[in-house]
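Propose amino acids for all 119 sites.
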C-alpha cells in the first residue's frame, strides 16, 4: 500500500554537503530561502496511514528499508514536507523529525525524481 508520494522540484546547491553524512533534508516549496539551499524541495502531500519500520522508501530508482521513524515524521511531512532522511541503519529514532533508513551509499538525485513510501 502506498502511504506517501511526492516529487523533487528543486535541489539546493548545498545538498551535496550532507551526502557524506548520509543525510538528505526534504522541505516543501515554502521552505525559507536560507534553508532551501540545503534541501530537496518537494510538493507537500498527505500521508496515508502510519509510516513504520519495515516500510520501504523509494527515491528515484533506488529503494531503501525504513529502520526507524521519528515521532514527528508523519505530521511534519504532511504539514511542511520537512523531514530528514538519514541512511545510517539506526533502529531507534533519536530525532523526532528524522526518518531512518538502511545504511546505504546515496546515489545522486535529480529534479523530477519521485519519492514514495509504501508498505
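Proposal:
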Amino acid at each position: 500500500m502506498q502511504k506517501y508520494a511526492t516529487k523533487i522540484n528543486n535541489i539546493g546547491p548545498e545538498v551535496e554537503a550532507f551526502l557524506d553524512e548520509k543525510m538528505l533534508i526534504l522541505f516543501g516549496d515554502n521552505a525559507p530561502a536560507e534553508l532551501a539551499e540545503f534541501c530537496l524541495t518537494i510538493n507537500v502531500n498527505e500521508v496515508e496511514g502510519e509510516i513504520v519500520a519495515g516500510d520501504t522508501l523509494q527515491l528515484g530508482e533506488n529503494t531503501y528499508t525504513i529502520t526507524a521513524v521519528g515521532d514527528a515524521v508523519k505530521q511534519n511531512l504532511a504539514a511542511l514536507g520537512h523531514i530528514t532522511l538519514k541512511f545510517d541503519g539506526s533502529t531507534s529514532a533519536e530525532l523526532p523529525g528524522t526518518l531512518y533508513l538502511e545504511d546505504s551509499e546515496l546515489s545522486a538525485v535529480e529534479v523530477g525524481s519521485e519519492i514514495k513510501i509504501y508498505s
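The beta strands are 2-11, 23-28, 40-42, 56-59, 62-69, 83-86, 98-101, 114-118. Helices lie at 33-36, 73-79.
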